């Protein structure tokens, strides 16, 4: 079984050599700029670790894992735009719209999403593409609520904006590994807990969201409770989920260090 670092290296190498559609030649530089902006690649690594635990090989999983990361990057490029979060920096360097202009950034984000779906459809069946489209619809719906509805509950917002793509990372891996739908429930329940834990930890690190709504002590208690729940879900899966457990531990360590 590969280590998480080995999975991360596979993701970086695969994304680095991804071919883009010929029609996107003029946008390729901006797309690669956005993709190479750093980050832990936690979503595609989650996809690889899930798929390997379910019996698939990395070569089979990498297109789905890369597609998940392309969808994530599309969302970041658009979130940073002046009309939305208006962030000039992303991970310590200029956001795509600052580096290339707003119009090119919009088009690059659109192109990343379309290229992700093209990767998903290369499997010759619809399940992976459906996971990504459903996640994208949820993310867009959550972003709309974020900018228009000041009364929306954080739990609903986080489930849409953050949780849906984590669920898609796990769900895509299950389809590639040909796990029957009737056997997917514990994996998907774990994905829901993992996405929530990720968001709680993010809010603790940023002193935002759940921390502001419920206070730091309550946020930390919820983090511990969600970690325990995620591990209980892993225990229900009849496979070696050690790498998934390590991902949970990584999030928990970040929470305790904050």
- Count of beta strands: 2
Q: Walk across the major sheet and give the strand order.
A: 1-2
Poorly predicted runs of 5 or more residues:
none
CATH superfamily of the largest domain: Farnesyl Diphosphate Synthase
The shape is globular
Total helices: the number is: 12
Q: Let me know the average pLDDT.
A: 95
Which percent band covers the strand fraction?
Answer: under 5%
| CATH third-level topology of the largest domain | Farnesyl Diphosphate Synthase
Radius of gyration: 18 Å
Give the proportion of residues in helices: over 70%
Which structural class is indicated by helix and strand composition?
A: mainly alpha
Main β sheet profile: 2 strands, antiparallel
Can you tell me the CATH class of the largest domain? Answer: Mainly Alpha
Terminal CA distance reads 31 Å
CATH architecture of the largest domain: Orthogonal Bundle
The SSE string, one letter per element, is HHHHEEHHHHHHHH
Provide the number of structural domains. 2
Description:
With 258 residues, the protein is mainly alpha-helical. It folds into 2 domains: 171 residues, Farnesyl Diphosphate Synthase (Orthogonal Bundle), CATH 1.10.600; 79 residues. 73% of the residues lie in helices and 2% in strands. It is built from 12 helices and 2 strands; from the N terminus they run ααααββαααααααα. A two-stranded antiparallel sheet has the order 1-2. A hairpin with a 2-residue loop joins strand 1 and strand 2. Helix 3 packs across helix 8 and helix 6 packs antiparallel against helix 7. The longest helix has 23 residues. The chain is globular and about 50 Å long. The mean pLDDT is 95.
């Amino acid at each position: 079984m590969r280590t998480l670092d080995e999975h991360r290296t596979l993701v970086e190498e695969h994304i680095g050599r991804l071919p883009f559609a010929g029609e996107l030649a003029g946008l390729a530089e901006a797309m690669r700029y956005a993709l190479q902006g750093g980050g832990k690649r936690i979503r595609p690594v989650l996809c690889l670790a899930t798929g390997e635990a379910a019996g698939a090989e990395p070569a089979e999983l990498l297109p789905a894992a890369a597609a998940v990361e392309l969808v994530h990057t599309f969302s970041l490029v658009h979130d940073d735009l002046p009309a939305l979060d208006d962030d000039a920096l992303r991970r310590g360097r200029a956001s795509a719209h600052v580096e290339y202009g707003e119009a090119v950034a919009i088009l690059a984000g659109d192109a990343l999403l379309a290229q992700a779906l093209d990767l998903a459809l290369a499997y010759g069946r619809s399940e992976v593409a459906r996971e990504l489209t459903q996640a994208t619809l949820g993310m867009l719906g959550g972003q709309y609520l974020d900018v228009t509805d000041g009364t929306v509950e954080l739990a609903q917002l986080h489930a849409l904006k953050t949780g849906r793509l984590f669920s898609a990372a796990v769900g895509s891996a299950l389809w590639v590994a040909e796990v029957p739908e009737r056997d997917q429930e514990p994996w998907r329940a774990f994905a829901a807990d993992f996405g929530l834990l990720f968001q709680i930890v993010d809010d603790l690190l940023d002193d935002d969201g759940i921390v502001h709504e419920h206070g730091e002590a309550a946020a930390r208690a919820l983090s511990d409770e969600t970690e325990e729940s995620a591990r209980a879900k892993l225990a229900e899966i009849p496979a070696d989920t050690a790498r998934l457990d390590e991902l949970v531990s990584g999030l928990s360590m970040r929470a305790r260090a904050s």
